[in-house]
Design goal:
Elements lengths: L5 H16 L4 H5 L5 E3 L5 E10 L7 E10 L1 H25 L1 H24 L1 H17 L3 H16 L2 H15 L1
Antiparallel strand pairs: 1-2, 2-3
Helix pairs in contact: 4-5, 5-6, 6-7
Length: 176
């Protein structure tokens, strides 16, 4: 159900073995078990564990109940709240520094226009220009744009230039 990779499955099996050995209390080991996973359909599920002890014995485990709770809606609402906070922060910073933001827009457009020429001449210079833009967008709290620029920087730093044009095009779309 959890669709764990080999390493995570090994950890889960060791966790289960240690629970049934009962060298440590269930209460101490419960927090070490898997706490969450994402389904193949993108749902976010949290896991909680409840022990059932043998009747008359408070420390001898009989069974463990795993309670799975779908937190997809909650996660979505949390993301929306975070985006709303980012937007408010951006508007505040924009109102405090309108000229700086105008300069940033202008510099971004200039970089897009000069992109192909700079790419052919000096990849290091291109990296520096995108890195500077990322920092400047970061000052305005525009995480989505900085994430796109970070992907461009990664292409430049590891040399996957065949992906570079696609990433820059995606940034242009996001910028527009």
């Amino acid at each position: 159900i959890l669709k764990l990779n080999e390493n995570d499955m090994s950890l889960l099996n060791r966790w289960i073995e240690n629970i049934w050995k009962e060298n440590l209390s269930f209460k101490d080991l419960a927090s070490l078990g898997p706490r969450e996973f994402r389904t193949s359909t993108g749902r976010y599920i949290t896991l909680d564990y409840k022990p059932i002890y043998l009747e008359g014995e408070k420390k001898k485990l009989d069974k463990i109940i795993c309670i799975a709770t779908d937190k997809t809606k909650q996660r979505g609402l949390e993301k929306e709240l975070e985006l709303d906070k980012e937007k408010v922060s951006f508007v505040n910073k924009l109102l405090q520094n309108p000229v700086d933001f105008g300069d940033l827009m202008s510099d971004t457009l200039e970089l897009f226009e000069a992109y192909s020429v700079i790419k052919e001449m000096d990849e290091g210079e291109l990296f520096r220009k995108f890195h500077t833009l990322k920092a400047r967008y970061g000052q305005f709290g525009l995480k989505e744009i900085t994430t796109f620029i970070d992907k461009i920087e990664n292409c430049l730093s590891i040399g996957t230039l065949e992906e570079l044009d696609t990433k820059v095009d995606l940034l242009k779309e996001k910028f527009e």
